[in-house]
Amino acid sequence: MKILILGGAGFGGSGLTQRLVKTGHDISILDVIAPRHVEMIRHLYENETVKYIWKSTQDISPDDIKGFDIIFDFAAQADVPLGFTSPIHTAQNNILSMYRLMECFKKFPPKKFIYMGSGTTFGPNQPLPINEGAPQYAANPYSASKHCAEIVALSYHRTFGIPITILRNGIVYGENMRREIVVARFIINALLSKPLIIEGGDQTRDINYVTNTLDALELLLNVDSSTINGEIYHCATGVETSIDELANTILELTQSESEIQHVTYRHGEQNVRQCLDISKANKILGYQPKIFLREGLKRTIKWFKAENERLGLSGGI
Ligand SMILES: NC(=O)c1ccc[n+]([C@@H]2O[C@H](COP(=O)([O-])OP(=O)(O)OC[C@H]3O[C@@H](n4cnc5c(N)ncnc54)[C@H](O)[C@@H]3O)[C@@H](O)[C@H]2O)c1
């Protein structure tokens, strides 16, 4: 199959690229990052195992997507804090590019279009576990942009029959993750004996190791398109973990004596409790998380230790 991975140079997209090249599919990546700056998959691009289209989805044209059977969409401004400082950039990048894609798909629709949605679009006081039909309540500009992108894609599906499948994720972490994600920030500071700064602490999340997410994406790749078209699936662990618990588990696993400092909640975080209902993904796709928090953190800590040594890092975040 001809597969295009939008945002394929990032954390999740490069993980999927590395996994799918082993299956013999014809893989292309489209990303705004300059190709020679992409460490994780540079070898695959340089030895021509994958094609690299250096471009933004905001400028995508029908010819860029013509002939692809499956398109995965990881391309987004993916950071909540940057959403606060740059809400316009976040909206343009995450929402307008979805309109752009949908207009291209009217001309050349793929068989499947799989979008990486976010569980941050759910607000406080939700009955747990949160299922796909629960009301969304975006409480920050990033979450609003992810929610809007879903609405745009679903509207084109309803009106023009454009294929869309949404995989909504909790926090995804693991090797190669961005250093801005809370799991990474805590691990880095624990390893460097710097304080772990917790905004709030009793709010909870569903924290999923990246290979579980990649398993779900591979299941979506292989299932019949008529089964998943127009559908939303939650991909997570189904386990609720507080940010305090995450920090303490990281301190224990790294044997760190870093202190914990509590500061005020980030906007919209108070009373948020989350774990996602994964029964639909389990029943329809056969999705089952295999790696849970402690094991996933052990693997991620090992990777960060090696990275810190390689980069000679001594500062915390
Ligand atoms: N990591 C998580 O915890 C998490 C959780 C829920 C949802 N998601 C979603 O999953 C997707 C991937 O997240 P990630 O953690 O891998 O992020 P990431 O920042 O590591 O990867 C995103 C990639 O998209 C690229 N990109 C951004 N805008 C682009 C554009 N307009 N055109 C082309 N490329 C563009 C970036 O250069 C980057 O390589 C995002 O849509 C994010 O919202 C991530």
Please name the defining characteristics of this protein.
Rossmann fold; 41% helix; 12 helices; 13 strands; binds nicotinamide-adenine-dinucleotide; globular; 317 residues; seven-stranded parallel beta sheet; two-stranded parallel ribbon
Q: What is the topological layout?
A:
Elements: E1 2-6, H1 11-20, E2 26-31, H2 42-46, E3 50-54, H3 62-65, E4 70-73, H4 80-85, H5 87-107, E5 112-118, H6 141-160, E6 165-169, E7 171-173, H7 182-191, E8 196-199, E9 204-205, E10 207-209, H8 210-222, H9 225-228, E11 231-235, E12 241-242, H10 243-254, E13 260-263, H11 279-285, H12 293-311
Parallel strand pairs: 1-2, 1-4, 2-3, 4-5, 5-6, 6-11, 7-10, 8-13
Antiparallel strand pairs: 9-12
Helix pairs in contact: 1-8, 5-6, 7-10, 7-12, 10-12
The chain binds nicotinamide-adenine-dinucleotide.
Describe the structure in your own words.
The protein has 317 residues and is of the alpha/beta class. The protein has one domain (2-176, 208-239, 275-292): 3-Layer(aba) Sandwich (Rossmann fold). 41% of the residues lie in helices and 17% in strands. It contains 12 helices and 13 strands. Helix 1 packs across helix 8, helix 7 packs across helix 12 and helix 10 (243-254) crosses helix 12. The N and C termini lie far apart (42 Å). Nicotinamide-adenine-dinucleotide binds next to helix 1, strand 2, helix 5, strand 5 and strand 7.
